[in-house]
Design goal:
About 35% of the residues lie in helices and about 15% in strands. It is of the alpha/beta class.
């Protein structure tokens, strides 16, 4: 049986200061994020992960760095990088930008998945790189895989696992180091834990 443990990266200063990162801002974890990653490791270090996967952005590698071991395969996969937010990246919640942001979110909620921020990626762009990644998970050799990704990417990914339309992405909760645990049951992924934060308690 295959199991995957998917978590969002730990906190960065951009997260704390409400600055958009997207795929174009390669932020490192802040002190809180480092503590979160250590607490996650303390709770899950006994699980015999035989595969680690993180995006090409440093905050995901840092979040699971305590698990990384030369004897265990580790894949860096840019298909699970954060969505590109284009003109929003590196900027805060200025009113004009927020209006544009929420317009895009409303478009996605209305099923217009091709809408996107200026110079950014659309929901369908994100889905088009996540679907092959999820398909490949069934073909990789592992029993328990630890996967570290990003907030919007996680929302889209979980929608795909649930067979939900992307219009429901906003219903997917995500928190820094929040965990989703899935098992492969008769060729279908079943979610058994959603956005679990027990390690932070």
């Amino acid at each position: 049986m295959k199991e995957i443990f998917i978590l969002r990266h730990g906190e960065t200063e951009c997260n704390r200061n409400r600055i958009v990162q997207g795929s174009g801002v390669d932020s490192e974890l802040n002190e809180t994020g480092i503590v979160q990653s250590k607490k996650f490791f303390s709770k899950y270090k006994s699980i015999p992960f035989d595969l680690h996967i993180h995006s090409n952005l440093i905050r995901t590698k840092q979040t699971i760095s305590l698990f990384l071991n030369p004897s265990i395969p580790c894949l860096v996969d840019d298909r699970i990088r954060e969505i590109s937010w284009g003109e929003h990246e590196g900027k805060g919640d200025e009113p004009e930008l927020m209006q544009k942001y929420y317009r895009v979110i409303r478009s996605w909620q209305g099923g217009i998945y091709t809408d996107k921020a200026l110079d950014g990626e659309s929901a369908i762009d994100l889905s088009n790189r996540l679907n092959p990644f999820i398909k490949d998970l069934k073909n990789l050799t592992f029993s328990k895989a630890l996967i570290c990704t990003h907030g919007r990417t996680l929302r889209a990914m979980i929608c795909i696992f649930k067979n939900w339309p992307l219009s429901r992405m906003e219903e997917i909760e995500h928190t820094n180091t929040g965990l989703y645990h899935l098992i492969l049951d008769e060729n279908d992924w079943k979610i058994i834990i959603e956005n679990d934060l027990a390690h932070l308690e």
